Amino acid sequence: MPVEPILPVIDCDIHPSPSKDLPLEPFIPEDFREALRQGMGSNKSHAYANPFGVTRRDVNCHDPVKVAADHLDRYNIAYGILQPPGMQVSIIHNIDVANAMAVAWNDWQINTWLAADKRYRGSVCCNMNDPPAAAKEIRRAGKHPQMVQISVTTEALNLYGRRNYFPVYEACQEMGLVFCMHVGGEGSYNSSTPIGHPSTYFEWHTGVPVTCMSHLISIVAEGVFEKFPKLNVMFTEGGVGWFPHVMWRMDKNFKALRATTPWLKRLPSEYMIDHVRFTTQPMEETTPENQLNMLTMIHADKTLCFSTDFPHWDFDAPDVILPRKIPPELKKRILYENAAELYRLPSIEQATETLRASQPVAQPM
Amino acid sequence: MTEKSDVSSPDSDPRPMLFNTGYGTENTPLDFAFKIIEEARPPKARSGKRLTVCAAAEIPVGGRRIVTDGPLSIGVFNINGTFYAVRNVCPHYGAPLCQGTIHGTHRPSDVHEFDPGLQGRILRCPWHGWEFDIITGKGCFDEKTKVATYPVETDESGDLVILL
Hints:
The complex is a heterodimer.
Chain A: E1 9-14, H1 33-37, H2 64-73, E2 77-82, H3 95-111, H4 113-116, E3 120-125, H5 131-141, E4 147-153, H6 166-175, E5 178-182, H7 201-207, H8 209-221, H9 224-227, E6 233-236, H10 243-257, H11 268-275, E7 276-279, H12 288-297, H13 300-303, E8 304-305, H14 328-343, H15 348-358
Parallel strand pairs in A: 1-2, 2-3, 3-4, 4-5, 5-6, 6-7, 7-8
Helix pairs in contact in A: 3-5, 5-6
Chain B: H1 29-39, E1 50-55, E2 64-69, E3 72-79, E4 82-87, E5 101-106, E6 116-124, E7 131-133, E8 149-150, E9 152-154, E10 159-163
Antiparallel strand pairs in B: 1-10, 2-3, 3-4, 4-8, 5-6, 6-7, 9-10
């Protein structure tokens, strides 16, 4: 029988959570345990509830060994990027507690999930409301060889292009870590739309890409990529259909308004295509023709990286989510190569070999 | 910006990081555009045809006059006593460019720094606000966009003549 081809996958969005067996508490710095007992870990949260719960009914993401078997093995996922709940530490009211919780989440990740399987890659959590402390934590936890990015929510006290965040970008660039903005928390500080509070989780969830757009425009306009030319940023779970609009509108405006941001030496879209990446999930589901056009418009051969959002309700599977008529080369770029280049992971050939060696009876995609 | 990176990662993976590798030129597009503007090379006459405008004294410093010759429309500008001619058609939508406002701009600069300059040389299209340098015709926003410019002479009688 001919050997079925294996197409390795990098999943850029897996959400582990602590459990009875792998609790967070032991990793919380001792000096802050009393503060937490006193309720100083409070955060306002956005309070929009998914009526069906956020996690899939049939799985959880508590056990790294079980997830490796049920999720990584099942889909030929060669590397899975973890997005722990600690991405949200910046919405904790107390600055010092938020800093301590970032340390806790990073040490929890390193000692539980990253230690359990070498296919996992981590996201450094940090408090964006204390950029010098965030930079310090990025330099500490980011040293771990399986840490590939930092992850923060798109809910923020300010637009991420603002220069008070520059110490964070400086640390990311120095450590070779991607700056990943994961949607979430919208409504914790501000209303989740600039107009006001939506009525339902349905509206809230559909509208959160607005914050991605706002941060992207700010990051480009404020010259982050001129100041930190080796920095790459990732938008996770914010969709991609809005990206052409932002590129084209910003390029159009640049012709007349360039002099207001004279540090930009290239069209805004050129910075974006070089430095900005997106994860697929939740991929806009439209007709296959529209999807293929969208992939062209967003320069998916460079910018798009596959993700599942496992174990959440709006999960995408790698064998279903891309249009059937996608060119095979583009499929490889999206499922593996774009993320491998971004996170400097082994080549698709090496990953294929590793998978073949470890899973002699792997199911073809 | 254009150098190749050999940044070492924590796990010393040899793969280079993604970043701008430029366009095969030493300058980024905006640096290139402003190099042309700053060099301010005078335009050359092409057809040998001459178009008389008006007496030089009629256009004060900072002023302009738009002249037509059949379908051709050209603006003549007096910048600090020197005269420059720019085709009155914006390469974007064909708008009457020479009716735009004249001002300065910011040269390409470091992040969060402003380097004002080219005062009195920058023509902003009245329709969409695109900026052009009057002396070179070069657009201030990309590598290629340019509007035609022509040499201007003052003849023996003191009239301005555009050399087409």
